[in-house]
Amino acid sequence: MDLNKIKEVAQSYEKDMTAFLRAIVKNPGESCDEKAHVETIAAEMKKLNFDEVVIDPQGNVIGYMGTGDKIIAFDGHIDTVGIGNIDNWKFDPYDGYETETEIGGRGVSDQCGGVVSAVYGAKIMKDYDLIPEGYKIMVVGSVQEEDCDGLCWQYIINEDKVHPEFVVSTEPTDGGIYRGQRGRMEIRIDVKGVSCHGSAPERGDNAIYKMADILQDVRALNENDDADETEIKGLVKMLNPKFNPDWEEARFLGRGTVTTSQIFYTSPSRCAVADSCAVSLDRRMTFGETWESCLDEIRNLPSVKKYGDDVVVSMYNYDRPSYTGCVYEIECYFPTWAIPKDHKVTKALEKAYHGLYGEKRIGAADTLEMRQARPLTDKWTFSTNGVSIMGRNGIPCIGFGPGAEAQAHAPNEMTWKQDLVTCAAVYAALPMSYCE
């Protein structure tokens, strides 16, 4: 099929895609409460004559076009974060708004717009015979990503027994093609103390004071350099060939970070010494870092070693049930991943894009300057389901999706209609590009 025809057909579905997206986001769909989103997507898939539409026991909605044995998958998570302080919104986040070029509402960029483009991209593939022989197209509306990225794909791969040849993540990419991301993990530090009356604090052992020492060392990891004389070498060391054989990909993805995100304590009263203190750490990992190395890094901090057995460093587990009641427990570890720049999947997506839209990112007029200042092929700042697809399971994964990373989790979230069209066209052209 002529590429100009694919663009023309995708453009003709702009109103349908806009209406579909607005129908999804009109209901709250926070993680573990995605039922209304799933039902809306399943109904649209059936209306567009998908060959098969299923909702698995975890609650993921999965549609298939074609009947081959080999699978090319498109994934978009359909859960959202909450709206936060409603006073920060200029419009109703679930009613949203629409202009000639924009759509507003919670979830339009992060990340229901990607599912909309994938559903219509699959329709174009089927209607115009763009599904290669022996293949079928899989479109997934996945659940619980905001709580535990990749959990849904662990379930799809291990329990649904589905193993695609490759997966396109439809997370927002600001008009670019993204081939990787930093990983992350959730770490907890627990410190024990001994309580006593606050009038004589020397009789006790204040867990908060111990934690204060530890947090200074954690902060040093994020802020220090990696010079020979620096006792606590900063995470920037992973960009240095001296410390990391994977430094080239680490420089592509960016350095790791660590931040203290939560703090907890116990104390008999406000006039007593605290007898325990705990913190949560959000740890972003670059190439060359693993969950073991990150835990050991905290355990080897001078202040942690100083307090010995009174400190326990561990990784969180996730065990919250999905909206169907399914519990699929997993460690809160989300591996770093990147598909090589010369991989067949990377080249196929670049070829499809170049044939349709040229060498640079495109988008609405108010986005062009920012987008075209960046390389077409780049990486995400945040985390995606690719942590499971490729990070844990080695299935090639690449990203191309409507919307902007900066809109994720933000008040007044919006996306652009042109992005929906662009992505639907590229998705439709990709399978044939891959199989040439």
TrEMBL record:
GO terms for molecular function: acetylornithine deacetylase activity; metal ion binding. It holds the Pfam family M20_dimer. GO terms for biological process: L-arginine biosynthetic process. Gene3D superfamilies: 3.30.70.360, Zn peptidases. Its cofactor is Zn(2+). Keywords: Hydrolase, Metal-binding, Zinc. Residues 180-302 form the Peptidase M20 dimerisation domain. This is Peptidase. It comes from Mediterraneibacter butyricigenes.
